[in-house]
Design a protein that fits this description.
The protein has 347 residues and is of the alpha+beta class. 38% of the residues lie in helices and 18% in strands. Helix 1 packs antiparallel against helix 2 and helix 2 packs antiparallel against helix 9. The longest helix has 25 residues.
Length: 347
């Protein structure tokens, strides 16, 4: 249903336009709030556009209502759902059947450690999707445990791993042994996965966590987690739009410091995104960004540990070396950002 998806996409972009004016590269989000207030008219328009998007999700993607899909709490529930004829012919039904037939549940495992900063801040505090760290158990997140390595990256300036707040980005194009323009972020010295699968596991989403507990991570589960999270969001966004109170302030002018250190941690669609800034004499002295694709698509680190995607590729059986579609499946399941991570290999 590729053409149907293309036709549905404008509603989603227009919905973002109601709040952001344009996307991407919007200017609506500023320190202190947003530059556009939301009145009843905008709320009504946003809800109408969301309804159009929900119709596509339910009629084409799922073949059922969102509430019916979210009744699936386990792999057994999912298999029962798939046996219902009107679900089998939906886009998701076709993916669930063909994905397993193609063996996507058997390839692309990668590390079994997951990281999320948490996302969608709530008025009462906390986030709708919690942050944390998973390594055979659930642990609280500690930002001081992040370190970036550059042993195999086209950068110079330090050895080992250092915290992003102390980081530097000094290109070195002739560096021997380097093969990536991404650094190698690690959490507590370990390789982790970030993204929708990480968020769903750390949220203890019953469906995704049950499949993960039985099968472990895979290409199949990463894609399913991305879709499942999106379906959950369609319903939740409607709730949030209705909660907007036009009588409350949308912007509060911030105080601009002359000396400061700052950190911003959130979740982009691809996973954990962090910004670290140092301000001196009213000017930015250093600014470091660690993107989701740096976490997932990083090269080896100072301990020669391969990155998450590299680990997921190791051992992948390729049927035709001249057309390695299996490699493409694994890499694309991480939804890599080409701007954030470029590898260079010589024949």
């Amino acid at each position: 249903s590729y053409l149907k998806a293309i036709r549905a996409r404008p509603s989603m972009l227009e919905l973002m336009g109601v709040f952001a004016g344009k996307w991407p590269n919007t200017l609506v989000f500023q320190p202190g709030g947003v530059t556009c207030s939301i009145d009843t008219s905008r709320q009504t328009k946003a809800l109408g556009l969301l309804r159009e998007l929900q119709n596509f999700v339910e009629e084409t993607l799922l073949g059922c209502g969102i509430d019916r899909w979210l009744e699936n709490k386990s792999l057994d529930d999912l298999e029962s759902w798939l046996k219902e004829s009107h679900h089998q012919d939906s886009d998701l039904g076709i993916y669930l059947k063909s994905g397993r037939e193609l063996g996507l549940d058997k390839i692309g495992q990668g590390p079994t450690r997951f990281l999320s900063y948490g996302v969608y801040e709530l008025p009462e505090g906390g986030t709708w999707l919690p942050g944390g760290y998973y390594d055979q158990g659930f642990f609280s997140f500690d930002g001081q445990k992040i370190a970036e390595h550059i042993k195999y990256s086209f950068f110079e300036g330090y050895e080992g791993g250092i915290h992003p707040s102390e980081g530097m980005t000094q290109p070195y194009v002739d560096k021997k042994g380097a093969y990536s323009w991404a650094k190698s972020p690690r959490y507590d010295g370990k390789v982790v996965q970030v993204g929708p699968l990480a968020r769903m596991i750390l949220d203890k989403d019953p469906l995704i966590y049950d499949i993960f507990s039985r099968w472990g991570p895979s290409v199949f589960l990463r894609v399913l987690a991305r879709l499942h999270e999106a379906v959950r969001l369609v319903r939740q966004v409607g709730i949030w739009i209705k909660e907007i109170d036009e009588r409350k302030a949308f912007y509060k002018k911030p105080r601009v410091p002359t000396e400061a250190k700052g950190i911003g941690l959130t979740e982009a669609s691809r996973g954990a995104l962090g910004h670290w800034i140092v301000i001196k004499n009213g000017k930015i002295e250093t600014y470091q960004v660690v993107t989701p694709s740096a976490w997932n698509l990083s090269p080896k680190d100072s301990l020669d540990q391969p990155g998450a995607c590299e680990q997921a590729l190791i051992g992948t059986m390729v049927e035709d070396v001249n057309n390695p579609v299996e490699v493409g499946h694994v890499v694309r399941s991480f939804d890599p950002c080409l701007v954030c991570s470029v590898h260079m290999l010589k024949k």
